[in-house]
Structure formats: structure tokens, C-alpha cells
Fold this sequence. Notes:
118 residues; mainly beta
Amino acid sequence: VQxxxxxxxxxxxxxxxxxxxxxxxxxxxxxIKYDMAWYRQAPGKQRELVAVIxxxxxxxxxxxxxxxxxxxxxxxxRKTVTLQMSNLRPDDTAIYYCNARVGVMDSWGQGTxxxxxx
Length: 118
């Protein structure tokens, strides 16, 4: 699955960013089969799950560190998933990766850098 992530950038602490991920080569009936997620990897750290949204958007889960600040959503007709990030902190600085999972199969986007300055 080809995933195209966008929306990263430099923002001051307390600011907001919105990340988007598109799956242009999937058709609607395929896209809705995937759980979609965002992961991130900070320098010197392991990749960690940030947020996940299930196939039809019925369930979302977040890392404790982002609860109340980040919101994941999906638009199945547009085959996109969005991560709205608010009240950003310097420790949110990382490369953010879009993930699509069905069964045990994972697909990853290219990553988009988010830098939060203090």
C-alpha cells in the first residue's frame, strides 16, 4: 500500500499542526479494511505508536503522552487519515509515520518531520 504523508514542519511550543496521509492507489472498498495509525520516532528513540483509528473510524486510541492534545480521524471516501496536533511540546519533535494495517500486514508512509521549538 502506498501511503503519502504530508503536513510536518516547524512550530513553536503551544502551536498546532495537522498531518495528513493519503492512500491514492487504494479504492474505497480496500481502504476501509485498514486500521490506520500514526507513529513517531524521535532522535535516539524507538518508534512509538501515537494514535490509531479502526477501519470504520469507530474506535480510536492514543498514547498517554498525546491524549487530549492530538486527534486522529479518517475520511474513507477520500482515503485519508489526519492527525490534528494541538498544544505541541518540544518532546513531540519526531519524524511521524503513517501506518496502514490489515491482519499482520503493515504498510508505511515516508515520514514527515515535526519540529517543536521551545
